[in-house]
Design a protein that fits this description.
Length: 411
């Protein structure tokens, strides 16, 4: 049976024309499943692997719906999309403008770190979509510069992140401003039971769609781990980045300080690199991301602020300079490669300090990462520590004192 086309999903001509020009020939699995549910007016909680077109899955049916309405100057927004980072909000706004180019869609970004005046001015002229980060949105709500009384669609992209401790309080406050009945849509590549139960506090009779089991790594990502002593990590990284097969590489560190240090070290060794983290100004952040997107800078060293949602074409490698403590972030980080069916390589550098995080990752992704020893700084000492820690975990489990940290997938 052939895949139904966008046409068969009932999308209107202006949207189909834009998709044709952009070059989307057929819907992705999450688009196939989610678009009809959104179009029928249901609440939805949807998960699908990174890079599989979730943005279009929620924006296309909404652009379609909105395009049938009467427009007027000064219209308050009908759609509110919340994201965890400014960069992701800007990207989704670009997608809306792209997909809605023949539907006269009006969209506005409401994010911190940039001047508020133009945002207020755009809102005053009238918009259909607002794509926002929670902090600046609450600021504008308090200033009465935005009215959410007419919002009919509330979307949380990276929903599990939006409902975790860092954001849930703000998100709930914002949800209170959005009248009911409304349609509330949640999308992410990772979704825990806790998130689902929190979601039920802002949704009504939500349908659920999972294209793959939650926390499934995107297809086409080759995952490797390299054992290395901590002091050799910079040299190993330089060695990897100089390899011919590396086109664009995104390097993740655990902290801002390490991100800046690593970027400087790469520059000194002749590799064009920049750092992006929350201590940089928004214009520095945007400049770094733009330089990376256009290939002017081959390596971007980042904290988890770019782990979620960011879609840069041609990232051939994601390198975890440090393995994240939060295993879910591993899935999001490596999901910056192998997008829209492309291939990618994810390499995690593991020193003794990373071992427990590696075990957490392997337990979440339900597989042992491939050990790549063919590198000049391979450390059998670190490999030995992993074996010893696995053995100890098994013994603890056998003794009935398992603390739940042992991975059944560990070697
Ligand atoms: P996700 O949110 O699932 O991580 P995105 O919405 O960012 O993924 O989309 C990932 C990439 O796939 C983007 O570059 C987007 O342009 C592309 N894409 C989305 N839908 C399609 C489609 N139907 N056909 C081809 N490419 C698509
Ligand atoms: Mg996304």
């Amino acid at each position: 049976m052939s895949t139904p086309s966008f046409n068969e999903l009932g999308l209107s001509q202006p949207v189909l024309r834009a998709l044709g020009e952009i070059g989307y020939t057929e819907p992705t699995p999450i688009q196939l499943e989610a678009i009809p549910i959104v179009a029928e007016g249901h609440d939805l909680i949807a998960s699908a692997q990174t890079g599989t077109g979730k943005t279009a899955a929620f924006t296309l049916p909404l652009i379609d719906d909105i395009s049938t309405r009467e427009f007027g100057p000064g219209d308050p927004p009908l759609v509110l999309i919340l994201t965890p980072t400014r960069e992701l909000a800007l990207q989704i706004d670009e997608n809306i403008i792209e997909y809605g180019r023949y539907a006269d869609t009006r969209s506005c970004v409401v994010v911190g770190g940039i001047a508020v005046g133009p945002q207020i001015e755009t809102l005053r002229r009238g918009v259909d979509f607002v794509v926002a980060t929670p902090g600046r949105l609450l600021d504008l709500i308090e200033r009465k510069a935005i009215i959410l009384d007419e919002v009919e669609f509330l979307i949380l992209d990276e929903a599990d992140r939006m409902l975790d401790l860092g954001f849930v309080h703000d998100v709930r406050r914002i949800a209170e401003y959005v009248p009911k009945p409304r349609q509330t849509l949640l999308f992410s590549a990772t979704m825990t039971a806790g998130v689902r139960s929190l979601a039920s506090t802002i949704q009504t009779d939500a349908k659920s769609v999972s294209v793959a089991p939650p926390a499934t790594v995107a297809e086409n990502i080759e995952q490797q781990v390299m054992f290395v002593e901590k002091e050799h990590k910079p040299d190993l990284l330089i060695d990897l980045l100089k390899r011919e097969e590396v086109e664009l590489a995104l390097v993740f560190t655990g902290t801002k300080v390490v991100a800046s240090q690593v970027a400087r070290r790469l520059e000194r060794s002749g590799i064009k690199a920049d750092a992006i983290h929350s201590n940089k100004t928004q214009s520095q952040r945007q400049k770094a991301l733009d330089a990376f997107t256009t290939g002017k800078v081959k390596v971007l060293v980042a904290t988890d602020i770019v782990a979620r949602g960011i879609d840069v074409d041609g990232i051939s490698h994601v390198i975890n300079y440090e393995i994240p403590e939060d295993a879910e972030n591993y899935i999001h980080r490596i999901g910056r490669t192998a997008r829209a069916g492309a291939r990618g390589v994810a390499i995690s550098l593991c020193c003794v300090d990373d071992i427990s995080n590696l075990r957490g990752v392997e337990s979440l992704v339900k597989q042992a990462l491939v050990i790549e020893e063919d590198q000049p700084f391979h450390s059998s000492m670190v490999a030995g520590c992993l074996v010893a820690s696995t053995r100890a975990a098994k013994q603890r489990a056998r003794a009935g004192k398992g603390r739940g940290s042992g991975s059944k997938w560990a070697r």
